[in-house]
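Q: Predict the assembly, please.
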Amino acid sequence: MTLLILLSVSFFAAVILAFIGDRKFAPEINILGSIVTFLAGIFLAVQVYMYGPIITGGKFFFVDAFNIYLVVLTSFVSMTTAMFSRRYMRHEREHGRVGHRGMRFYHAMFQLFIFAMLLALLTNNVGVLWIAMELATLSTVLLVSLYQTPTAIEAAWKYFILCGVGIALALFGTVLLYFAAERILGEGGEALLWTNLNQVSDKLEPTVLSLAFVFLMVGYGTKVGLAPLHNWLPDAHSEGPTPISAVLSGLLLNIALYALVRCKVLVDGATGTHRAGYIMMGFGIISILIAAFSLLRQKDIKRMFAYSSIEHMGIATFAFGLGGPIATFGGLMHMLAHSLTKSSIFFTAGHASQMHSTQEMDRIKGLRRGNPLVGWGLILGAIAIVGMPPFGIFMSEFLILTATMKDAPLMTPLLLIGLGVAFAAIFRKVQPMVAGIVPSYQKSLKASHIPVILHLVLVLIIGLYMPDFLSQWFHKAVEILK
Amino acid sequence: MNLAAQINSVMAALILLTSFGLLVQRRMYALLHIFAWQGLFLSISTAIVGYVSGTHHLYISSVLTLVLKVILLPYILHILIIRLQIHKEVETTINVPTTMLIGIALVIFSYHLTSPIRELSTLVTRSTIAVALATVMLGLLMMITRKHAVTQIIGFLSMENGLFFAATSATYGMPLVVELGVGLDILIAAFIFGIFFFQIRTTFDGLDVDQMAKLKEED
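A: Predicted assembly structure:
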């Protein structure tokens, strides 16, 4: 029941907003829908926490410790993003960057996107997971091109084509998975259910599953933004409206990684080897290095943080590939901390570029004096994202590094180089933007502070002290992913 | 039974042939016709497999293919081509013979890659899995070699054809809910690229994707 509310609220909100999304009160409806979704998510989480995993809807939905934490995270970040987008989009509209139709479209697609992500997380069916992932892509493609500038259209086209191809390969992987499963579980929908597949994973044909994993890895890896399949990501993040960058970076990448990790567990069970893990580690480390060195050359603020997302998804993928309790725990925590930090950075970066009417970092100056909360938000977010204590990312990276030194010592220097270069690159760019005097062209604006403060406080809490329920969740999820 | 398997193999051969046709054809309308033929062969093949195996939901997906891939999508594309006036020839980035050679290599690679599946499978359609993968790969190749928005979309849809074919030949079709969902996604994608064509057309000069090369890293 809770589950049904969770899914249907965002869906119906999307339908309603498709008609009235340009009214004055539309942002409030958008926020209200996301709040209800978030509350339903919390309620579901409490149920799972008290009574264990839930399988419902004729085995169609499946909730366990791994996906419920992502459900809560997804609904939370989409709620804060909806709050942020109220002032942000009002500013964009006043400056004539979006019209009536644009606003209707924006609000409807925002809710549809949330619906697609929640469906991808909650479904028990590998095929439906694929469909929901594709729906999440399609609902955001035209949001990336919302401003209709040449670069925005180029970015959206790239996103559409690259992710379309990627996800098509993932479908081929899913077909192969079904082929292997059907021989054990019989024909029909039953053979595509995670709950059934995990029970018989040791009986599935290893050669077929290895082949399937290659396709799934390339397919979902494109959506995670892993190098060398990452080309769409910086463009889409930098050209789309900032709230969309925040949810793409903070949520969509996580969902794709979730799909990948579920597949990996299955394939590991079938092959009995660690080959899938090695593939993930390889993609992860390449992404970290490529992203770290690309960070050095960035001029556009949103583009820079998009590369930072590639780096962090690389770290999480690496951690899940490494396996073992510590690395997996670190990976789960990293997904959480990165998602919260990165979306708060995009909030502040969005306001910063609105204040200066540009996304070029050379022209953004004196943020701390111009608007203390935006300035402090950006610098604290940057400190958190480069992995400085006492924020959550420090803890998760520390865990992952410890596990790497123990299980794959040769990878440690590569990982450290990546982290070090990223640290230097981001800090060198952020510091001049925040410090200094206010330039004459800077405009003052009403920023929305609550989302930023909320996110940063949460990341700080995770870094200082891990709440009991959270660590229990993670421990259960680690059990599942063993 | 045997006859049906043979007809299915013929259909597989025709699908592969149309894939190569898409690779070499330069005229826009002809491309569209070849794509529609490919959908038709796919639909017939799906119906035959459904008949042989007695899996009735394959009839539904056969009809779905017929409506979507043979009638609706080519029709939408046709209208778009007329409205946008883009029926001239399309250049390829690599010349045709080289493309063909790469295509042949991809087909051989597909046979090699799917050999473990062919050995495991007991279905009558098992020999066509390689063709399905080859169709996916050739669609991908077409997307890479053609720098035009419409041809890239046709390549993309041809890849989807390959995926449907893979599903029927490897497993007698995915569960119905999945096939319907995939069909729905393709339909949404069709509307999106329709909107895209207009956006690209009004913002850029034509539909050549080459013009969209502003977003890259400066040194």
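Residues 284-482 of chain A form one domain. The first strand of chain A starts at residue 54 and ends at 56.
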